[in-house]
Each structure stands twice: as structure tokens, then as C-alpha cells.
Amino acid sequence: MKTIIKQYQSHFLKGITFATMSFLMLLSCSDFLEPDDPFGQIPYVEIFEDEATAIAAVTTLYAKLRDDVLLTGNSSGLSVRMGLYADELDFYGMPGESAFEIYQHQIIASNSAVQSTWNSTYNLIHMANAALEGLEKSEALSQNLKNQLRGESLFIRAFSHVHLLNLFGNIPYITTTDFQVNKDVSRLPQNTVYEFILTDLNEAKTLLDENYIGEERTRVNKAGISALLARVHLYRGNWQEAEAQCNSVINNTALYSLEPNIENEFLINSNSAILQFKPKNFGTNTHEASTFIFISVPPPFLALTNSLVEAFEENDLRRTHWIGELSDDTQTWYHAHKYKATGNTGMSLEYSIVFRLAEIYLIRAEARAMQNNLQGALQDLNTIRARAGLENAVAGSQSELITAILNERRFELFTEHGHRWFDIKRLNRASQILSPIKPGWRETNTLWPIPEADLLINPNLQPQNPGY
Amino acid sequence: MKNKYQPNQIKQLFIACTIMLPLSFSLLAQTPSTLEVQGQINDGTSPIPGATVLIKGEQRGAVSDFNGQYSIIAQSNDTLVISFVGYTTVEEPVNNRNTINVVMQEDATTLREVVINAGYYSVKDRERTGSISRITAEEIENQPVNNPLATMQGRMAGVDISETSGVPGSGFNIQIRGRSSIAAGNAPLYIIDGVPFDSQSMGFQDTSNGILPGSNISPLNAINPASIESIEVLKDADATAIYGSRGANGVVLITTKKGKEGKTRFSIQSATGIAHTENRVKLLNTEQYLEMRREAFANDGIEEFPFNAYDVNGTWDQNRYTDWQKELLGGQANLKQLQASISGGNQHTQFYLSGLAQNETTVFPGGFNYDRITANSNLNHQSDNRKFEVSLNVGFSLEDNKLPNFDPAFTAPNLAPNAPALFDEEGNLNWENSSWTNPLANLEGNYTSASQNLFSSLSMGYHITPQLQAKLNAGYGTSQLKDNNTFPHTMFDPAWGMDSSASMIIVQENDKSFWIAEPQIHWSKEWENNALNIILGSTFQKQTFDRHGLIAIGFPSDRFINNVSAATTLIVTNENKTEYTTQSLFARVNYNLKEKLFFNLTGRRDGSSRFGPDNKYGNFGAVGAAWIFSEELKLPWLNFGKFRSSYGLTGNDQIGDYQYLHNYIITDDQYEDNIGLTPTRLFNPHFKWEENKKWELALDLGFFQNRLSTTLAYYNNRSSNQLIQYPLPGTTGFTGILANLDALVENSGWEVELAAKIIRKKNFKWNADFNLSIPKNKLLEFPGLENSTYNNQLVIGQSLNIVKLYKLQGVNPETGLFEFVDFNNDGMITAVGDRQYIADLSPEFYGGLNNNLQYKNWSLNVFFQFMKKRGFNEYRLTNPAGTLSNQPVGVLDRWQNPGDNATMQRFTSGADPEAFNAYSRFTQSTGAISDASFIRLKTMALSYTLTLKDLTSCKLSLQGQNLLTLTNFKGADPEQLNGFMPPLRRITFGVELNF
Lengths: 468, 995
Prior knowledge:
The complex is a heterodimer. By secondary structure, chain A is mainly alpha-helical. Chain A is built from 20 helices and seven strands. Chain B is mostly beta strands. Chain B is built from ten helices and 48 strands. Chain B is globular, with a radius of gyration of 32 Å. Mean pLDDT of chain B is 88; it is low at 1-5 and 13-30. The interface between A and B is large, with 101 and 103 residues. Strand 1 of chain A pairs antiparallel with strand 30 (663-671) of chain B, so a sheet runs across the interface.
């Protein structure tokens, strides 16, 4: 028994020693409080010192555009939202969804779709800026790779601002990740924003190569920058510059030519494509196909407006090839059918297109028409019409030609990234076109409201756009 | 063993031992002999069950049974200490007697002798310097609830608890003495049997957010309330500062039941019952609803109903009526449970084992249910010489929960009353040609969760000398939560043309484990009129948390939806592993003079992995003092009086892990052959814990032999260095950043606790307890608030729980639209300028009144909870009146013609932007809040105890929870205002057998 007690005693003497030691350890051993790096996270400082992670940080920007932000073909992208806002799409979902409010023009400053468009786009801009700052400091990457990645990041930053500008009007231009700066930013006049956009794009153009990275057209190259520059100059009415940018793309016949058969326009190896998004998973296709196509009626979510379908000229190949239809006993509904492949097809068949040659022709047509080069304009317009199986348009007045080009854009570019809305807005035809069909239409709807939450947090963003 | 000793050796050993045993005892005592003492404890008339019999100077003891009988192994020279709450403690020397019957005298002054658990130490109620509230098994067992937090609701001053949802498995909001943190966690620290229990929910938004509010799955669901002996809540600095950076929000100590010496006892309890929703919102019927819709279109100048106005354009049957709240939430849940326990032991070793099996269905249509199995065990041992003691507690639980994906409480009030039938003639879900979303479609998919929890604690102590004890507290635990959401294609309108290739399952797995070791030294000394207690200890704790999630899409058939390996597409949605470590030193010095003056000094130096490199350590501490003045006064009616006060500093580290790192995280944004990499957050390396300075002054009084006792306390707590997820405009790329700010939040208030023994007849006893809290929450300082992102949420001098609203002026008799006060007089109503009305949603006061009545074998417990506050009402979550969405009946008092004076504006179908906007503002105006005060009959329990034989008894009980609510509130429930399923009314009948 005694020995047992002794054992206890010696045991506990050890215990005391341990306790005392641990007090001392507390003073010395601070490693205990330094946890391992969290699983699945990489310190910011290491990202741009390694080729693979630096490239991944930049390609993630494309992935965000493909799946979440602005250009995505799912219901949160501009193709759906601005299609509903303009006269392209009818909404068949449940009232109360944010898409319904967009469709009805019942937007208030706290609208969740407006807020999410704003937040997700600025988040993308933050990511682009983080990449630009990381590349700037990087020591390990080659200059070539740095140039390439910088060019792509500048492109995404500029492109994001182009959309924000056209949706919200005067906006801040964000060029840093420093939140102390970004939290108090003020809105800039549109011209100033455009100057920033042009600076970024012009630099990107010098940094990027003529050719694509890899076999596919899924990373932006010099021609992609030109395509965006052409659009920006068109929106601003800089006709000469717009035409020059178009020329540089159209004349690059080694890479680009209009697919003669419009069936091939949206396929992965389309020669018309200037920039496409690679799907996330091998063998899958586009969000657009699953968003727009329906296989029973009445459609559960969206359908093309009858007014759009009926406006096509007879024999327009785009009407027959790019629009699908489905009927019940009494009625027919139409859907966009530019992208046809859904699900996993083993090998991907279609990639979602960001820029394609047809838009460039139509930009040049408009730019030429505005410079009174009506013949040149007509020639570009008819290039597009011819491919659609239509007769040549005949010469008329300048304004008739502009209307013809606007119509052609409607038929060529429908349900692609909100082109229709941005066109009728910039040509001041929104009111004329929408007031008869949208009971909620008001003149001030040409701009979306600055999200209420942001306006409350950062008073420098005031004043709110008129009407909200 | 067997191989080592031959039989003859064993014999020798045995002889040696028999000689040694008395010898070794002789070293400890003079001439002892061991004997079994038996007897009965009574109050002169009737037996006292539950009285404690202890050997003086030891922790070992027995408890009297239902007939007052006890038995204990003692030594002839021991002294028995017999105690029971409300009676004078009796000391009886054994003196070689085998039978000792004890008659106890009632003396309420001994209430003060109750030993209160204070965490690292325990303290007599009489001598405590800190603020501690307590409930015991007796109160807990009266309540037919699942979660220990539910048992505390309304029963403790300063503790505000509300249930987040009536769905089984959901969580609770708890605030001890108000909200001290603007943005970091306000949850208290939980300690079970001496070991911290991580109360942070493992639920994740991907799977559980639709049915369990905020994905809050209370880990405390793993604790069976019936296994709890007592719950203590530590409130002031004196009690909480020893917990340092985790003590700011208060500490909840849960002590589980322990084994007691004596005959082995069995207890079996079976209960069965029902639960259902208590209140519903009064909504329009079909006739009223259709009138509203037609009027809305007429108001908007729309003559032909649009194609999607299915309810009025003839698509839907206009004579149908369905009470959707009744249809979707009006079911009856069945409750079943079976519990058993065994306890017993001898003088050295005691054990306690208990188990619970439980099944509960829900009020939703469909086969949803919640199953739970828990097991608890406790083992105590003391060495022969009583110098060494060890106690082990192990608790284990399994929970399975199957619920709908989304809480139908959100859809039910909005569905049109003439919406189509749920099923077509063939019994399939009816989609009425894609004109509606069938609410039962949600129930095609479901949310299932399986959780496991193992929690163990070990406490060892050794008295090196009578004054000096070395102790080690250690604990280990793991918990897993695996849950998933299924979305079979049958959830969707067949018009979408989906098949099982679109079926989806979201799977989430969470694993948490921790260990803790706390070596300590306790030293105490008494001399003349002085006593000194010192504790010195340190803590090492490490917790790891693994989480990963998957989405699997596309199955050969919906049958395989739970087999993610059968899916065509697998997406990893999250994969996380986090570590949380703390390392601390703590100490307590307690001194008392003549058992009248008490001083208590506590402190802790805390290190935490949650803070940036420059701020790894912080110091916390408190001083408390008490003075028992009643003995000086010698007033006949005042038998106890004590002043106590404390002041100190505590901290709050509930800000998540790794928040100071500047990282990219791997996401599923693959592009080409590259992984997705996304910045995790905006970078700020300089943050640390919040600080909370607490001050308290209290008076404890006992009148008329403690038949009436009361505590009156005033506290004032100030939290600074606020950790804030500082909201930022979207232009920063994020919606917020975590930072410390010199904001100062004050929680002050009064707390009153009263306990009265109103009637104390032999056959009839009536005890009542009352508590009242009058809290005040105030933002004192916030440098640069005007220019900060919080400007629209907080106001200096106001509570943190304010909301800024438009001030509703009423309906303009000419235009028929809601009008609001134009605070900035700019002629427009804007959020920035005119959402300036401040409504404080914190409770003005709250409390409870508990009554225990006993008549012969009958006992009745009636508990009322009450609260005065304002809250968002039934209009808050409505769509504009006149759109395709049902409305509270209140909308009928609407404007129709110029000149009308109405409370509600004219109906609109949504096509009138002005009316639509005005209504949207209305839901953010003073019109959307109303008084949400209530008095609730929270618990009523009636039981009858039948004594069959000596130790055998049978107890029948009928228990009810949330039975009746008195309120003017017109929403679904005044307690819980988040739109989810309100807490349920539960009624159970139980039989308990003890033998």
C-alpha cells in the first residue's frame, strides 16, 4: 500500500513538474499559437512567384465571366437580364423573382439583381487589380509571361468598366486593391471613365500577342482588344477609330473569316470567333444552351418575344437556324437556338462566344455610315445579310441606313450579352421601342440605380441616378 | 498477472495484505473500523428524499431515497454531515453506530450553503463575490424540450434566449447581459464538466440554410437535458475574468449527473406527446383576395388581366380556398422518448450511466423526423487514503434529422388562397400547366443530417499536503456533422423537361476535434479568522476543424441520388481545414476575514491563434469583494444581507480563424487546365480581441428565515476595441473587412431575483421564483461614425439593436399612396435622406415567474415568461398588396376613392411604379413594426408520484411547453421574428419508474 502511495506521490511530483514546465513553456513556446497555413489557401505573396499559380489567378478572371459575372450565359448574365429589360425576351417564371422585376421595369434601388451585378463586377475588378499588383512585384516570372498576364488583366478590368458605365452611367474607375481608397471613391464623368478604359486597352494591345495562347481562342489576343476598342469607339461615336480597329481585325484573314454556313458560327472551331470561353468541365458546353432552350410549353422561364421573331425577314437563315420553336394546340413559343448542345457531349461542341467577326462588320458598317461612306457601309451590311441568305440592302439615306444596321444588329446579335439594350439606349430609341410594351417604362430607366446599400455606405457615390 | 504468481504466492500476498491493510490505515487514523451505516432522514413528520449524507472532510457521500433512507460505508470515528436545501445541516459522529436516524430542522438560512459551481473552483452561495445564476435538474426535468438552452429560457435574470426555429435540431440565440459586440460573436463560452464545449454551429449554408435559420445547428442538441444536474451562468467580471479572452459574453457551466454511493438504483422513464404550431397569421380568404386583385388591376388602369395573372384571369379556379398555413405547417408532430439510468457505487467508486432514445416527427406534410440517441457515463474514484481522486465523464450522442429543404413557413403566407390543388387526379404533384410552383415540390427533395458527438472530460487531483492539491483537468472530444440536400428532378415542373440527369445532391461533411489540458495547483490555508485560497493553472487547447463539400449532378436514376459516385458531374464546393489554439495562464486568489469579508482576485494571460502576429497575448483580470453585514445588524426580520461588487476586464475572440492572413483560396473556377484562385478577403493584419470591462454592484437579502430572499443587481459593462466586419461599398471588391475600431458599447441594467416560500404546510407547499431584467444597450462612442459605413445602421446614444426606418405618415386621401416624412426636406423620399426614424428592437424588460406547488403526492409547476419589446410585424416580408401574393387581413382597410381615410394604400398589381415603390418603402417603415410584447405560459407540468414499496416509486407526469401566449402581436410569433417556423407547443405524458 505504501508503495502505491509512493507511486502516486512520484507520479504527482512529475505532474507538478509538468505543470511548472508548462508555465515556463508558455513564455517560450509561441509556435503553439502559429497554426499551419489553412488548407487550400496560398499566401498572396507566393501566388505571383510561381508560373502555374500566376496563370491560374488570371484565368480565374475568365472563369468568373463565364460562370458568374456579366457575360455568363446563365440567368445572372446580361444576355438574360438585358434581354428581358429590352424587347428580346418574355418572362414566364414566377412573379417575385428578381428577373421578373427587371422584365417589368419595376427596379428599385435595392433590387437584388442590380446589387449583385454591381458587387460581382467590382469583385472581378478587384481580382484583376490584385493580379496587376502581384505581377508588378513579381521577381520570379519571366517578362514575357508578365506581359501576357498583365495584358489580359487590363483587358478584363477595362471590359468590366465598359459594362458598368453603360448600365449605371457615371461610375468610379478602380485601379487599386487598397480598400482605403476604394471605399470613398466618387463617380467620374463618363468621358473620364472612357479615357481610363482606352488607356488600359491601348496598353493591353501593346502587351498581347497576335496569336492565341495554345490551340484555341479562349484567351484574349491583340484582335480581342481591337474588337473591344471598336465597340468602345462605336459607343462613343469615334467613327474613325472604330473603323480602324475593325479593319485591323477584318484584315487579319489568316485568323478570321466569316463562317459561310451560319450553322457553324458558334462551334468550337468557328473561324468567326475572336474570343470564346472554355467550359469549366471537359466535354460540357455553354450555359446559354441550357438557359434558353425549353422542351415543353408554356416555357418555364423565358421565351423570345413574338415581336422579335415576327420581325425577321422571310427566308432569313438566322430565323430558321438560330431560333427554335415549340407549340401546343393553340400557341407557339420560340427560343434562342444559337447554342444547341446541352449537357456533356463527350467532346465539347460549342463554346460561348464573347466577340465574333459579324459584330465587327456591323460596327464598321455603322462607323462608315456615320462618316457618310454609305457605299462602304452597305458593303459590310450586305456581307452579313448575304450570309443569312438575304438579298442585298439597297442604298438609301444615311438615317435609313443606320436604322437598317440597327435592325441587322438585332437579328444578328440577339440574346448575346445585351447588345439590343445597349444599342437602343445609345441610339436614343429605348423610349420609343419600350414604352408601348413595358407598363413600368420611364425615361429614367435608361440607367440602373446605384445600389442603395452602396449609396448609404459611400455618400461620395451620390447623387443617385434620376428616377430612383 | 496469472503467469507471474503461483497460488501459494497469492496466498502469501493475501496474508501480507490483510496484515498490511490495518497497518496502513493506522498511519492515517487512530483506531478505525469500517461499518455500514443506515438510517432514515425526516423532518419530524415525513421523510426527506434527496438529502446528502457526506463523510466530513471528504467529497464522498450518499443520497437519501424516496423514503428518506440512506446507507453509507463509514469508519467508526467518522462524522456524517447530513444536508438538504432548506434545512439546517446536521453533523452526526458515527461512534460505532450502525443505524443513525436523523431529524432535520427546517431552516431556510441554509439556502445560502448551496455550493455553486464557478468553473475552476466552486463556492458557497453565501460566500460568493461574483454574479452567478443557476437552474437545477428539478426545473430542467419539468420541461419537454430537447436542448439545454431551451430549459433556461426566461428563468435567469440577465439571460435572453430565443429559439431560432421550431424545427427540430435548430439553434438558439442567447445573450447574457445584452449585446456587447457590434459584429463579432455574442455567444457565451460553454463549459461542460470543466471542459470548454465549442458551441459554434457546424452547419453550412450550402446545405442547411433553407430549413435551419442561419444554418444554426446547436451542438448542444447533443446534450440530453435530463442528464444535467445543474446549469450555472457566470455573468460579471468576478466570475468570468478567469476565462480571459473568452469570458466577455458570459460563461455557461453545465454539470452532468454524477454517481452517488449506495444501493444500485434504476430509473426508467418513457414519454410520448404531440407538438404543433401555436399561432398563425390571419390572411385573406379567396373572396377577399380576388377582390383585392381585381381592384389592383382596376387601380392600375389595366382592363384585361395579363397572361400571368393566373389567379384572376380564369386559369385557376376562383372558388377554391386553401388555408396554406394549415396545409403546410398545420400538422401534428409526434414525440416519443425513452430514458433509463443506473447509478450506485461504494465508498471509493461511484458510477452513473444514462441513455436516451428519442423520435420526433414534424408539423410538415411528409415523412420527416428527428431521431436522437444519447449516452452519458460518469465514474468517480477516491483512493483509500482519500488523497487521490479521479472523475471521468463521457457523453456520446447520435442524431439523425430528416427535414424539408426549405422551411414552408416562408411560402405558406404568400400563396394565393385560390392557388391550385396540390395533387392532380392521379395523385401526382399538380403543376397546373406551369402556372405555379407547387409548394410540396420542395418536399420531394429533403435535407438529411447525421451527427455524432463524443465529449469526455477527466479530472484528477492529488493532495500533496492537506493544503496543497495538484490537479489536472483534461478533455477530448470529436464531433461530426454530415448533411446533404437532395434535389431530385421531380422537384421541378415537368415542363422543364428534366430527368435524373439533372438531379442533384449537395453534400457537406464537417469534422471537429479538440483536446485540452489544464494542469493546476490549488492551495488553501486557514488561520484564526483568516482563510486564503489560491489557484494557479495553465491551459493548452487545440481544436481542428475539417470541412468539405460536394455537389453531385446527374444520376442514372433518382434512386442513386445518395451515391455521389454514380453522378456524372462532381464539383468540390469547399475544402477547409482550420486550427485554433489557445495557451494561457490563470490564477485566483481568494481571501476571507471572519467569513464576513471576502476578496476574490482572478486573472488570465491568454494567447490565441486567432490574432495577428503582433497581438498574440492579452491580459485579463478582475477583483471582487463581498461583505456580509446582516450579522452586525442582528435584525430579527433580516437573517441574511450581503453587499457584493466586482470590476474587471474580459475579452471576446469570436472572430473566426485565420482572418489576419492575406491569402488566395482554391476555388472551383477552373479554366483551361488551370485551377481557380480567388483572393479570400481584404487584408488587415492589425486586429485583436475585443475588450469588455464589467462592473457590478449587488445586494443579496434574506427575510423571515429566508422565506423570502432576493438579489438586486446593477451592472455596467463597456465593450471597446470592437471587432467589426466593417461594411464596405462594392467598389472595394468586397462587402466588408474585419477591423478593430475604437467604438464603445455599454450594457447596463438592473436585475431582480426573488424566491419565496409562500406556503409551507406539511401537505401543501408553494414556492415561487420571480426574475426581472431591465437591460439597456447603448452605443457610447464611434469615432467617425458619420463618415463611416455604419452611418445608416448605428446612432451614438442609441442601442445596437436599432433599425432606421421611413416614418410612415399614413395614406394620402387624394392619391391613395403611403406617405413618409421627408426628413431632409428635399421634396423626395430617399433611403439616404429619409430613413431616419430610429426604432429600438431590444427588449425593454423581460423575465419569468415560476410556481411550484406540492399537495401530497401531486406536484404542479407553472412557469410564465414575459418580455416587452417591439419587432417587425406581419407586413415586413409581404409583397405589395394587390400582387399575386396573399396578404394579412389588415390590408382590407385600404384606400379606394379620393377622400378615403385608410390605413393601407391602394392596391396595385405591380404595374404602377409609384404605388409599388411606396409599398416597398412601407415594408421598411414604421408601418412594418409593432409591439411584440408577450406573456407566455412557457411550461406547465403536473405530476403524481406513487410510492409502491421502500425504494420503488412511480411518477406520472403531464408536461406542456409554449402552451399559451398573450400578445397583441399579429404576426406568427412574437418571440421569434425571422420568418421561419415559430417555436412549437409541445405536450407530453410521461411515466417514470424508480427502483
